[in-house]
Amino acid sequence: MLALSFRSTLRGRSLNASCNALSAVQSAAPSLAPHNRQYVNPPNHLKLLRRKRNGFQELPPKVINNLGEQEDMDRLEKLIASPLETPKYPNSKMGVVTGTSMSKTVKVDVKSFTKNLKYNKMLGRTKRFYAHDEDEVCKEGDTVRIMPDRPRSKLKRWYVHEILDRKKVVEYDSVREEMRDERDA
């Protein structure tokens, strides 16, 4: 009934009049609902999305029964009241050091994943960043966090903020001895 009345109000009107008609129909929507139900419009970061062919589409407002589902309303209010978490290091990237041959510069490969909406497949992409390493402490294979910086050269716009994980250095002689001991035993 709501959709029919909305369509009938839009016929033969200008855009401005159509917007006014839309707001009038939306304001009349609670009166069309049964008296013991309420329409809830969650904020943008809590809206439910439905899968569409080329993307996502918003679901219509959810009807919540006021009699038995007060807990859901309380949960929704808590989510609305709680602030969104901000990242500890905004604009930072994590990657693996792949080159250290230049002085005070390291090459960092950052892996990012995106989902192909059509085929539902995760695609991995690698982008290479040149980062400033003042003390030249990074080695190949280390996992580092890089942060944006002022341009230091033509390609260098990042600096190494911290080394998250060192590459494990294995001494080949000790590994050979262990393998030889296992073979003999």
UniProtKB/TrEMBL annotation:
It comes from the Eukaryota. SUPFAM superfamilies: Nucleic acid-binding proteins. It holds the Pfam family Ribosomal_S17. Keywords: Ribonucleoprotein, Ribosomal protein. One of its GO terms (biological process) is translation. InterPro entries: NA-bd_OB-fold, Ribosomal_uS17. One of its GO terms (molecular function) is structural constituent of ribosome. GO terms for cellular component: mitochondrion; ribonucleoprotein complex; ribosome. NCBIfam families: PRK05610.1 (NF004123). Belongs to the universal ribosomal protein uS17 family. PANTHER family: 40S RIBOSOMAL PROTEIN S11 FAMILY MEMBER, SMALL RIBOSOMAL SUBUNIT PROTEIN US17M. This is 30S ribosomal protein S17, chloroplastic. It comes from Triparma verrucosa.
